[in-house]
Amino acid sequence: MKMMSGHYTSIDSQKVSGSVPAVPDPPPFKFSESNLQTFPPSGAQGKISGGGSRPPLDADDTFSKTGSGSDEPQQSGWFSAFSLATYKPYFDVDTIDVLGRIKDSLCPFSGTFNEKTASNPDLYGPFWICTTLIFVAASIGTFVTYISHKLKNQEWNYDINLVTWSAGLFYGYVTIVPLGLYVILKYFSVPWGLVQLLCLYGYSLFVFIPALCMSVVPLEIFRWVIAAVAGFMSATFVALNLRAHIMSAGERWVLIVAGIFLLQLALAVALKVYLFTVTV
Asked: For residue 37, how far is the Cα from the chain centroid?
């Protein structure tokens, strides 16, 4: 290399001994098309895709009902029973629906309550019916005993045990009895949801609210008649709505329906003995 007139002149590297030859540019690398498939496949059936498999028709969906448009994470299986979001849809009911179901419970011979509530059973009505029964029983019992003591010029003391006993009776009955019946129906492979049983038994207790109100009449025979009529209506309402489904249990369906009917009558007798009777 030499400098001439202030300019540099390049020397061919091929003619210089010991020089390294120039390396040509490598050819461009092209990626071949990937053979990987998108997961899950768009046409997959029985996979975890949105349009995949469906549960069998007789599967129990007791705790699988979720609210539409909810952004809250949903738990699966029996763990969802401990999530408040699981029960929100069962309290999303209109006043017209509740009043219509109460009206159906007062017409026990129709036997169409389950068909009307199969797609949308609620727990709102049963909860407030039981709560109303507790306060009605406590208030009417307290009022009658107060008047009786005043008329006889006797000292009156409020009995708090009436409230606690009523709460244990109604809340316990509407929870334990449907749960026990649910286990029995599962044993006989009768498709029935637990929430639907809770809804049925909750509305069956509404007839005892007016019966308790009429128990203020100080006639023992009248109270027995009221308790008998209310118990018969409630037992008939439950038995007729369960009969069509329990018949699939085989020959023993008669014993199951008879047990349901007698158990509801036993509740009416217990109400008559402990709540419809006012002693001074």
From this structure: 41
- Strand 3-4 and strand 7-8: the pairing is antiparallel
- pLDDT tens for each residue of 11-58: 554 444 555 555 555 565 554 554 444 444 444 443 333 344 343 334
Query: In angstroms, rounded to a whole number, what is the distance separating the alpha carbons of residues 174 and 169?
Result: 8
For residue 213, what is the DSSP state?
A: H
Quote the DSSP letter at residue 3.
Answer: E
| Lookup result for tokens 């005043």 | 150
Long-range CB contacts (within 8 A, 24+) of 194-197? 194/60, 194/62, 195/62, 195/65, 195/90, 195/121, 195/123, 196/114, 196/117, 196/118, 196/121
| Contact assessment for residue 249 and residue 256, using Cβ atoms and an 8 Å cutoff | yes
Query: Which stretch of DSSP H or E encloses residue 7?
Result: strand 7-8
Over residues 113-132, the pLDDT tens digits come to 888 888 888 999 999 999 99
Cβ atoms of 142 and 101 within 8 Å: the answer is no
Cα of 115 vs its chain's centroid, Å: 17
CB-based burial, 222-236: b 16+ in 10 Å, e otherwise: ebeebbeebbbbbbb
Burial class (CB in 10 A: 0-12, 13-18, 19+), 60: middle
- Nearest CA-CA partner of 188 in 247, 124, 234: 247
DSSP secondary structure code for residue 108 in this structure: T
Q: What percent of the chain has pLDDT over 70?
A: 67
SS3 state at 8: strand
In terms of DSSP H, where are the helices of the chain? 84-87, 95-105, 113-117, 124-151, 161-187, 194-204, 208-214, 220-246, 253-274
Q: What are the C-alpha distances in Å from 249 to residues 120, 159, 186, 256?
A: 24, 46, 10, 9
